[in-house]
Amino acid sequence: xxxxxxxxxxxxxxxxxxxxxxxxxxxxxxxxxxxxxxxxxxxxxxxxxxxxxxxxxxxxxxxxxxxxxxxxxxxxxxxxxxxxxxxxxxxxxxxxxxxxxxxxxxxxxxxxxxxxxxxxxxxxxxxxxxxxxxxxxxxxxxxxxxxxxxxxxxxxxxxxxxxxxxxxxxxxxxxxxxxxxxxxxxxxxxxxxxxxxxxxxxxxxxxxxxxxxxxxxxxxxxxxxxxxxxxxxxxxxxxxxxxxxxxxxxxxxxxxxxxxxxxxxxxxxxxxxxxxxxxxxxxxxxxxxxxxxxxxxxxxxxxxxxxxxxxxxxxxxxxxxxxxxxxxxxxxxxxxxxxxxxxxxxxxxxxxxxxxxxxxxxxxxxxxxxxxxxxxxxxxxxxxxxxxxxxxxxxxxxxxxxxxxxxxxxxxxxxxxxxxxxxxx
Length: 425
Fold this sequence. Notes:
alpha+beta; two-stranded antiparallel ribbon
């Protein structure tokens, strides 16, 4: 993809979210001259000195240029001489360490260097979850390369533009949560000053320097493993139609009385309880071949390829919570049917019904819909009736028991007949 002289097709340079950056040919020449190199690096006029030189034009919108790294001794004013507050030098050093490059480009310059339009670059940046930075020089060579790669997938016909944006959004949302967790829970604990008189900032830089390559390799390893597992599940389906509209078991597991607990427990205690619940649920779901879709504090949503796997996971969760005196009681609602999957999440009537069943399930009980019950009967894991169970040739032929309950109105879904799922003795 190439861009015109302004990058937006309108004759006016625009910021990363489509905003005007000052208008006029002069602004365009200052923001991103035509000297951007075809290999993705900018010319000296585009980003002098890697974004910390003395360009001839005034800065757009009066935003300050960024200082060089502290170890180079650069203590500059911004290009306009406004003396606006600078970012913390150590924060910039840590950012450079993590990104592997220093700030060099404005969003407009990065789009031109990548050979994409500002409109497409803006869509990618929004999708990845990054804030509007106007026309500050805050982007690096890695940012240019990422834009070029995504645009290249579109140009090659491997992805549609909409799918490329979805890739950016799903990756951004997932890694944003991971990064927040690592900083809040992991790095925060590790960066406690080991000696009196040391500050946390003095510990953070060398710690990140040591951890970064290890965490990066581990992240790629886990991603490849998860990708292989997900691909394997998809290609094993019977036909192409089922590959798109697959049938799953889906379940919500909810801690009973959690709202009351929030009033009685200290924040730290509450956080430990939620973490223990999520850890127990995640371990059980993974060990039994299910997939933890998401956690919602006092509730987890998981899915499984078959009803029997989901039933076993739900019963193990109930049993685990009941055996832990510090944990509240649990209730579970499960359904079986066609589910829409998008960016790792699940949607549709089947999911909504599972949520509604959870809200009416008894304490330490599991309610399933008629489709889930029928699937257990079809696969021979539960009897259609107690008479059938009594006539079974072997006492342990069935794993689960199903008890029909009275019809209940379910908000937004009409009347349903739930079944109480238990383990057979």
